[in-house]
Amino acid sequence: MFLQNAWYVAAWDREVGRTPVARTILNEPVVLYRKADGTPVALEDRCCHRHLPLSKGTIVDDDLRCGYHGLRYDAGGVCVEIPGQSLIPLGARIRSYPVVEKWNWIWIWMGEPARADVGLIPNWWWCGHEDWAFVRPDSLAIAGNYQLINDNVLDVTHLAYVHATSIGTSAITDFPAHVEHGDRFVRLTRLVADRPPPPLYQRAGGFTGNVDRAQIVEHTPPCYTINYAGCTAVGSRLPQARRGRSVDEITRSPSASGSDGGDRKIDLMALSAPTPETETTTNYYFGFVRNFGLDDPAIEKILAVDFVNVFREDLVVLEAQQRMMSLKPGAPQIDIRVDAAPLAARRILAAMMAGERPSPAAALR
Amino acid sequence: MFLQNAWYVAAWDREVGRTPVARTILNEPVVLYRKADGTPVALEDRCCHRHLPLSKGTIVDDDLRCGYHGLRYDAGGVCVEIPGQSLIPLGARIRSYPVVEKWNWIWIWMGEPARADVGLIPNWWWCGHEDWAFVRPDSLAIAGNYQLINDNVLDVTHLAYVHATSIGTSAITDFPAHVEHGDRFVRLTRLVADRPPPPLYQRAGGFTGNVDRAQIVEHTPPCYTINYAGCTAVGSRLPQARRGRSVDEITRSPSASGSDGGDRKIDLMALSAPTPETETTTNYYFGFVRNFGLDDPAIEKILAVDFVNVFREDLVVLEAQQRMMSLKPGAPQIDIRVDAAPLAARRILAAMMAGERPSPAAALR
Amino acid sequence: MFLQNAWYVAAWDREVGRTPVARTILNEPVVLYRKADGTPVALEDRCCHRHLPLSKGTIVDDDLRCGYHGLRYDAGGVCVEIPGQSLIPLGARIRSYPVVEKWNWIWIWMGEPARADVGLIPNWWWCGHEDWAFVRPDSLAIAGNYQLINDNVLDVTHLAYVHATSIGTSAITDFPAHVEHGDRFVRLTRLVADRPPPPLYQRAGGFTGNVDRAQIVEHTPPCYTINYAGCTAVGSRLPQARRGRSVDEITRSPSASGSDGGDRKIDLMALSAPTPETETTTNYYFGFVRNFGLDDPAIEKILAVDFVNVFREDLVVLEAQQRMMSLKPGAPQIDIRVDAAPLAARRILAAMMAGERPSPAAALR
Question: Which residue, among C50, C56, C81, would best test binding to A if mutated, counting the most A CBs under 10 Å from its CB?
Fold first, then answer.
């Protein structure tokens, strides 16, 4: 079950060029390429003649030619040439998907094209803003359902167990989390006061003593999540996260770059946009934005290498979960307090998906 | 769905000897071996006692002994010995299949033995004829339905796309194809006049200028296809293919071996006999016969190596097609002009298969 | 179909320690570990919260902590801690299985815990007895149903075919086998008089001439089998196996260790306890006990290496059988004389399994 009318990350911008690229998105085969002017195109990856994936074909100007019998499709999915005949049958066309290039990603709309509204792409303005650096790792192929990834990033208590040796601290569950949610968002805020920073944050921020931390998770269905981690030295006069403040608000406030440590403020975010491939596999796109050490290669490496390894720790857990759920599909489960945010996200998404299914009456029309 | 009452290639003659060989043919497990006098034998590859494949057993004189409890079967599939007991139960027998060794292949009849008529094996007399050389590559294991291979060899326009860098020329679709078909055959003829020879044919034939080409595809259901390619220098007085002439007729006419190029005539044929293993896998047997450069190792290499690589180009396409068809089994498809011959072959085969299914009335008897 | 109320070997004692170990037993995921005092524990390998296998977690004192959100389970499967909350829901528990450590194996009871009777573990007293040596190879992962292994060890005639080059002799089927069975056992006895010993036994026993052999197979459902092989020099005055004598009786009689060969008696047993993983895979636990050459490294190697290779010969047969049975699930089969013991074992087991299924009336209660 997938939400059709939504944007999904189809690829990093750097992954798509003048050679066709194959993707599976919401169980559908999709081929991506760029026109001569660089505009990205997404078509159904299946020739309407004999089903060869068009990603096995070649790009001709702005079009895609099938690698079997040479049928040529324009960027709208219309077959414009069939070698050996001048007439093209009416049905000779394939699906074309709305695509938008934004925040270094190519976003695809899998539902009704008329409803594709660019404004629904999450406003991740830090990507590409000059005061921020954006680390863009390759996506991770995960043998697990995308909602398990939503659950994972919406719950930061697992850091103490899954990431015990990297970014985890057992301090997290000492502080309460506050969960808010609306029709289309879930936000979890946890303020951690006067505690030692976890190892990687310490290296990144150069803190010498304890820190005040704000953890904010902001989730928008079906699968966009910001994991904000703000650190300030204890007693800093810099703005603190408060319940009800969004990551957008907090990060728009001025950042200190003083070297005295006391006023240092670190804003670090993981942006997650896992794209469902099938019910049990996901192409997990994610990146990191920060407002400190923009040109520091050591910090760059921490995020591009060490933090990706943290995500790989999650991968092991998510895939083991999926295998067990596939083995025991009806097994009972209990909910615990930290599930508040993930469960809220699942409820919102379930309602949105239910809204997409035609009613029985509609099926009769 | 397979046609049961037909000959299929079970193996190259060289593949079967005094060690049992396992095959899957039309979903059935088959074991092949030779008697002491060299006669090939095909039995059900399953001991009637505890299901061990007999291909795990050993040959004893003309019989096959199971590798588990030693049950011994004669070439007719009758169990003739059960170690530890003198009485052999009536049901102790397995299927034995009619086999014929012809054209360096071992042919097997999977249907009713009484209907196995050697005359139904295609008359590929060039194999083994002294004026012709027969190149016999190892079969290709293809993860695709055998009818996709029929489609492929019955359509020569794909050469311009799939084989663009090897034997393809875009000239092909400039000339019309003529398709004839009867109850039990499909023939496609295309005459290409005064064009440059494709690279590999040029090397093989030593043509210096343009050539006249005849492409003839002759298909006999369920899966026997001749792809004839004749080349003569432009203006040659040698016999040309005409519509309605069979490959047999054309190739029986005298061949010139003059070195002047003007009268050079090249007759080259690919013989295809793909054997269905399962609905989605095929053991593709094929070979090449030619009437020129019989002792020329360079030409031998072109066929045994380069042309096999051409078939591997098809393999990539066929397997991608099959994967997509398995992913989207009900996807619509359109037909185009070049499908005339493949569609005719599919219609004939469908009718033959329908004729094999017992009618509902027969099932009541 | 598995018998639930029975002991199965879950692991060798050496395989389980202070790191969780995952097993699949009767299709159920199981995690094994030891408490601080060494007591083995077996729990359901699935956190009741979000299904992560607990084998991905860590041992804390006598308990197991989930590697995702830190839920902690005691050895009884009760969740005793949920990080971040003080109340533990009633349903927060997983299955705990009775386990017993005996004969160097850890035995698990998969059925109703109240019925777990240690007395039902087979009395393999030779394991660990000072007059006997016990060779304990690693288990073999077999892609075949466990009853195929029962069949295999209950039938010694296959030695002549499967193990022709190792322990097999064609002499076996010259002598009749006597099969007895009761409610809960099957015993096959075959006395082989005055024949040459098979190669490995000759090396082990140092016989210079012919031997009298006793082959006894004792099987207790669902999957415990002793394959006893006793050898004495021909004409020895030592006790011989007779019909109706159990392996226990025979092996309790004094063993000669004289070096003259005439009175040498070799008692060698393979103990089999294959544990069903799924319907088509088995974790085959087995070992060898002997009363001769206890400290002889050459004999140790014969059993630990050569005899394990004999079992690997069976593995090839069993997996080929399983593949064929999965390919042709409804294929007919005939029974032969040597099936008497395997069929008796299957009948007993089928009756025991039928007794476990609730009657239709019970289902209505």
Answer: C50
| Residue B20: strand, helix, or coil | coil
- Domain of residue A325 covers 133-348
A113 with A140, same domain: the answer is no
Amino acid at C133: A
Q: Residue C211: inside a domain, yes or no?
A: yes
Give the span between the Cα atoms of B211 and B195, in whole angstroms.
5
Q: Give me the amino acid identity at C204.
A: A
Distance, in angstroms, between A318 CA and closest chain C CA?
A: 8
**B314 vs B89: CA distance, rounded Å:** 50
Query: Are residues A305 and A250 part of one domain?
Result: yes
Residues B112 and B139 in one domain: no
What distance in Å separates the CA atoms of residue B187 and residue B180, rounded to the nearest whole number? 5
Pairing of strands A211-220, A99-102: unpaired
> Residue B27's closest chain C neighbor by CA?
C327
Query: What whole-number distance in Å separates Cα of residue A124 and Cα of residue A132?
Result: 11
For residues A172 and A256, membership in a common domain is answered with yes
**Contact at 8 Å (CB) between B65 and B53?**
no
How does pLDDT run across C1-56, given as a tens digit for each residue?
Answer: 899 999 999 999 999 999 999 999 999 999 999 999 999 999 999 999 999 999 99
Q: The CATH number of the domain where A23 resides is what?
A: 2.102.10.10
Q: Classify the complex by whether its ipTM is higher than 0.85, answering yes or no.
A: yes
**C336/B51 touch (CB, cutoff 8 Å), yes or no:** no
State how far residue C135 is from chain B, nearest Cα, in angstroms: 26
Q: Do B336 and A85 touch (CB under 8 A)?
A: yes
Each residue's pLDDT tens digit in chain B (365 positions)? 899 999 999 999 999 999 999 999 999 999 999 999 999 999 999 999 999 999 999 999 999 999 999 999 999 999 999 998 999 998 999 999 999 999 999 999 999 999 999 999 999 999 999 999 999 999 999 999 999 999 999 987 887 787 776 666 656 667 788 999 999 999 999 888 888 887 667 776 778 888 888 889 999 999 999 999 888 888 765 555 566 789 998 888 665 444 444 456 788 999 999 999 999 999 999 999 999 889 889 889 989 998 999 999 999 999 999 999 999 999 999 999 999 999 999 999 999 999 997 766 655 55
Name the one residue in this structure whose structure tokens are 């002994």. Answer: B65
CB contact under 8 A, A68 and B162: yes
B10 φ, ψ (degrees, to nearest 5) = -90, -30
Cβ contact (<8 Å) for B336 and A67?
A: no
Contact A69 B338 (CB under 8 A): yes
The residues near A331 (Cβ < 8 Å, ≥ 6 apart) are A324, A325, C46, C51
Q: What is the DSSP code (8-state) at residue C76?
A: T
Nearest chain A residue to B158 by CA: give it: A69
> Where does a domain end: A90, A120, A150?
A120
Q: Single out the residue of B97, B120, B307 nearest to residue B224, CA to CA.
A: B120
Which residue, among A258, A259, A241, has the nearest Cα to A250 in the 3D structure? A241
Best of C334, C338, C346 to substitute, by most chain B Cβ atoms within 10 angstroms, is C334
Q: Where are the alpha helices (DSSP H) in chain C?
A: 146-153, 159-162, 199-205, 247-252, 297-301, 308-327, 340-356, 360-364
Using the 3D structure, point to which of B120, B142, B163 is the last residue of a domain. B120
- A330: which 2 tokens? 């009806």
